[in-house]
Amino acid sequence: MDFLSSLATLTIHWAALLFVFILFVALISVVVMYWVDTHQTTHTIRRNYPVVGRFRYLFEHLGEFFRQYFFAMDREELPFNRAERSWAYRAAKKVDTTIAFGSTRSLETPGDIFFLNCAFPTLDEDAAQPKEVCIGEYTAKIPYRTQSVVNISGMSFGALSKPAVQALSKGARKAGIWMNTGEGGLSPYHLEGGCDLVFQIGTAKYGVRNHEGHLDDAKLVSLAEHQNVRMFEIKMSQGAKPGKGGMLPGAKVTEEIAHTRGIPVGQDSNSPNGHTDIKSIDDLLNMVHHVRKVTSKPVGFKMVVGDLMFFEKMCELIHKKGIDYCPDFITIDSSDGGTGAAPQPLMDYVGMHLRESLPAVVNVVTAYGLRRYIKIIASGKLIVPGKAAWALSAGADFVVSARGFLFSLGCIQALQCNKNTCPTGITTHNPDLQRGLVAAEKSERVANYAEELLHGIGMIAHSCGVKEPRELNRSHVRIIENQSRSQLFSDVNPMPNIRPEYIDTVAFQDSAVSLEDRIQ
Q1: CB of 400 within 8 A of CB of 152?
Q2: I want to staple 248 with a disulfide (CB 3.0 to 4.6 A). Which of 2, 231, 269, 482 is the partner?
């Protein structure tokens, strides 16, 4: 008893001393901060309101999280509202994705769309799996055939952590979809999962560059030897930062990432605004032809649309140069696309939205008789079935998503991608933060999300009376004009006929036949 009494007395004594010490340190800290704040000349708030003014930065930082969890309504928050994120989370976890009592989405907003249900919807026994699509059928010696509809968009190793890339690669394999490497090069973790890969050639040509930063054909050949690498995508621009190359802070350029990209360790990795060897449409088509000739695999390009005449001129030039210079696919990115880091002026004000650019590009390619040769891939906030189904109805052959799959990994939209402090371990190279992201577990969620997204698109397609997602077209969609009126998408933006001068182009037919002979 005496021992316990002595222990209690000693504990209270030391606790009191510790409290006094902490109070003393806190008082000294306040005095130091007060002196610093009143004597600095950079920050007005801190100078006028010493010490207290510092809380402004804390509240500003915490505001992102409080708005997300306490103040924003289900459909208010940007860039992705709670309703969309919740659907993605539930889909990834393979739990109930139904809702009750009615939609929280406004069904009267001008410009929004809705699908037209059929009086005789497709029954489950009549439904079909997505048909196989062949990319590079007329141009590549090794074309790519796939049934996938939903795929993983470009996110590079460096912007993403090792376990994030591992989880995405393994999940893509399980779901039978492809994964785009992003512009950061091909890492062992992309190959580890065994999924189909699209290698992206960015403006800095990471992974396929020589010491001067130019395209290295030997490295292209080496990459093409990987059976998993199915296609090559030349990245001209992306939606979040058109006119600006990739930006990776030096804090995220580890030794491994530097080796993968072929750059110095610890230095900011800022890609050029554009390709130094692609300064015209002719240069672009020549590059497509060159990469395809070196790799024997399909080659296309990615861009956010800013000038529709670009596609008119490109199609005219393809007819002059021949099918061997035709891109096998075009990835259309939206101006509201995402990225790990981008200047706000570009993110907020530059580029066309997918809602306008996708059907416009499809129209041009169709009118010039090139639709059978060029596949269209849609990208830009297509994380829920309704938005993805709209892209297919507008004319896309495939849908790709980056941020949707980030949500499947557990992203909480903390908006820390441009720093090395991502709390979920997805976009950080801090081992302590990465520890929470278990690739084996998250790969299951990646596959679940892909499958549930496709299932949701399929439900919409069946409701519209078609058997599979790619049978959706513009006649299945109406665009809201006001609270009491809407118009058919096919009336507002009809699919054009092929221009007479481009019907049955002889040069293209000859090229296609000769290629088939070569393949056989």
Answers
A1: yes
A2: 269
CA distances for 138 relative to 180, 226, 470, angstroms: 23, 22, 21
What whole-number distance in Å separates Cα of residue 476 and Cα of residue 473? Answer: 6
In which residue are the tokens 């259309």 written?
332
Cα distance between residue 164 and residue 433, in whole Å: 12
Q: Which CATH class is domain 126-156+164-407+439-505?
A: alpha beta
Q: How far apart are CA 205 and CA 184, in angstroms?
A: 8
Task: Give the integer Cα–Cα distance in Å for 271 and 273.
Answer: 7
Taking the CA atoms of 158, 161, 165 and 166 in sequence, report the sign of the dihedral they define.
positive
- Where do the structural domains in the chain lie, given as residue ranges? 1-71, 126-156+164-407+439-505
- How far is the C-alpha of 269 from the C-alpha of 252, rounded, in Å? 9
Q: What is the dihedral of CA 450, 455, 457, 461, to 10 degrees?
A: 150
Token duo for residue 438: 């278990």
Residues 6+ positions from 373 with CB-CB distance below 8 Å: 138, 139, 323, 326, 328, 508
Cα(269)–Cα(257) distance, rounded to whole angstroms? 10
Angle at 282 between CA 281 and CA 285, to 5 degrees: 85
Exposed/middle/buried for residue 124 (C-beta within 10 Å: 0-12, 13-18, 19+): exposed
State phi, psi for 500 to the nearest 5 degrees: -50, -40
Give per-residue pLDDT as tens, 258-296.
Answer: 888 877 887 777 778 889 999 999 999 999 999 999 999
Contact at 8 Å (CB) between 160 and 426?
A: yes
Kindly report, residue by residue over 2-58, the tens digit of the pLDDT.
Answer: 777 777 777 887 888 888 889 999 999 989 989 988 888 766 667 777 888 787 667
**Helix (H) or strand (E) run with residue 301 in it:** strand 299-304
